[in-house]
Amino acid sequence: MRAFHRLDDFRQYRQGVGRVAFVPTMGSLHEGHLALARAAREYADTVVASVFVNRLQFGPGEDFDRYPRDLRADGEKLAEAGVDALFAPDEDELYPEPQTCFVDPPDLQHLLEGACRPGHFRGVATVVLKLFNAVQPQAALFGRKDYQQWMLIRLMTRQLALPIEIVGIQTVRAPDGLALSSRNAYLSPAERAEAPRLYRTLSELRVAVLREGVACCAMLEEEARQSLDGRGWKTDYLTVRQRADLQTPSPASRELVILAAARLGATRLIDNLEVE
Ligand code: PAF
């Protein structure tokens, strides 16, 4: 696997290869990222991954400084997963001057995750467009654990007419159901034992929604939320939404997704579950 830290060097490499499938990451890689890297092979002969912890998508007081970074270990995992090139730009390569030009995603950016983390999706969209410009991929793969991010990147790509296929890959879970996430590394052993409750709560809520019907969503959400908070979680949101636009479902809505973000101690976990 080739590794590049400078944009010019990467661009030179890019000129020599054909179709590229791209996996953007912030590093601290786990099986979820590696599943994206392996799936990428189906979309192109050359697979490129990036590792870049993007300051723009972190709010004040969030975990930018303590976000786990281990580029050597990440490189080894990506090479093992069959990635051809790693683009891990230094911060001043991607942001050589203060970034004053941003991608402003559609209103969906202000819901749920965006309401809890103002400016987050503007930072994500801006860096993803920059990475797309650098990597020039034909396909890009994202994890569906970050459901709203995946939706917004699809929207951005479509509305800005980028010739890139956006692929969403199912969440990879630990055997006890916990969605894999780089932030799981922050959990103490006791918190790690408690963490699968988030997925269990989503699964139970899904069963309840299917049984009671969409009209009861608000009541069922509230019960689920109280049950989590009663066990020491601090729920930011736990809600049933329409898959198409993440709005509150109407009685006629059929395609639903349950999305949640909740804090366990100092760690904020997110997860989601589609309702079939
Ligand atoms: O999902 C992530 O890891 C990040 O938000 C992304 C897409 C790499 C942009 O920094």
Can you give me a brief rundown of this structure?
The chain has 276 residues and is of the alpha/beta class. It has helices at 7-15, 31-40, 71-80, 91-94, 112-116, 120-135, 147-159, 189-194, 197-212, 217-229, and strands at 2-4, 20-25, 46-51, 85-87, 139-143, 165-169, 234-242, 256-264, 267-275.
Q: What do these coordinates show?
A:
The chain is α/β, with parallel strands linked by helices. The protein has 2 domains: 2-169, HUPs (Rossmann fold, 3-Layer(aba) Sandwich), CATH 3.40.50.620; 182-271, Pantoate-beta-alanine ligase, C-terminal domain (Pantoate--beta-alanine Ligase, Chain: A,domain 2, 2-Layer Sandwich). 37% of the residues lie in helices and 20% in strands. The strands form 2 sheets. The chain has a 6-stranded parallel sheet with strand order 1-4-3-2-5-6, sandwiched between helices. Strand 2 (20-25), helix 2 and strand 3 form a beta-alpha-beta unit. It is globular and about 55 Å long. Pantoate binds at residues 24-26, 54, 57, 124, 127-128, 146, 149.
| Radius of gyration of CA atoms, rounded to a whole number | 19 Å
Question: How much helicity do the residues have?
Answer: 25-40%
Q: What integer is the average pLDDT?
A: 97
Count of the separate structural domains: 2
Ligands in the model, by name, code or SMILES, are: pantoate
- What is the CATH H-level superfamily of the largest domain? HUPs
Count of separate DSSP helical elements: 10
N-C termini distance: 40 Å
- Spell out the helices and strands N to C: EHEHEHEHHHEHEHHHEEE
Largest β-sheet summary: 6 strands, parallel
The CATH architecture of the largest domain can be given as 3-Layer(aba) Sandwich
* CATH class annotation of the largest domain: Alpha Beta
Overall morphology: globular
Structural class: alpha/beta
Task: State the low-pLDDT regions, or none.
Answer: none
SS strand fraction: 15-25%
